[in-house]
Amino acid sequence: WACTLPPQTPLGGIPVALYAVACNRGRKVSLLALMASFIPNGIAAAVAFMVYTSPDSIGSFVNNSVLLVLVAIAAWGAGRVTRTSQMHVQDLERERERLEGERTTAREAVAAERRRIARELHDIVSHAVTVIVLQAAGAARVAETDFAKVILSLGHIQSMGEQAMAELGRLLGGRRGVVAMVGVRRRPPRGGWRLR
Description:
The chain is mostly helical. It contains 5 helices and no strands. The chain starts with 12 loop residues before the first helix and ends in a 14-residue tail after the last helix.
C-alpha cells in the first residue's frame, strides 16, 4: 500500500479546514465542505498519478485517493463529534441555569410567604393583645363597683384569645398543637369566673 504523493501536496490544510467547519457549522454546511474537499483531494491524487508514472500508477492513484478521502472523512467526523459534544455541554449549561433560576424563584416564593405569614401573625397578635389589655384595664377600673362588667370583660378577653388562637391555627396550617399548647377553654369554669 504505497502512497506516492508529491512533497508539495498540502495534506494538512484540507483536514484542518474540514475539522474547523464541522466544529463551527451545521450539518448541511459541513457536509457540503466535505464533498467540496474531494475536489482538491482528487486533484492531488491526479497530480501524483501524472508525476509518478510507474507500472503500478493506477494502484498508486487509488491508494492516494483512498488515503486523502479517509483523512478528510476522519477530520470531518472528529469535527462533528466535537460539535455534538459542545452542543451537549451547552444544553447542559442551559438546563443548569434554568434549574438554578427555578430554585431562586422557589426560594424567593418561600421568603415572600414567610414575610406574609409574619405580617399576619403580627396583625393577629397585636390586635388580640390590644383588645385584651383594654378589656383588662376596663375590668380593673370597675372591679370594686360593678362585678358584672368584670365578668363581661373576662368573657371578651376569653373570646378574643380564642379568636386569635383560631386565626393563628388557620394561618399556621391548622396545627393542632397551637390551641392545646395555650390551653384555651371554650367555656368559663363551673360557677363562672371568680377573681381572688
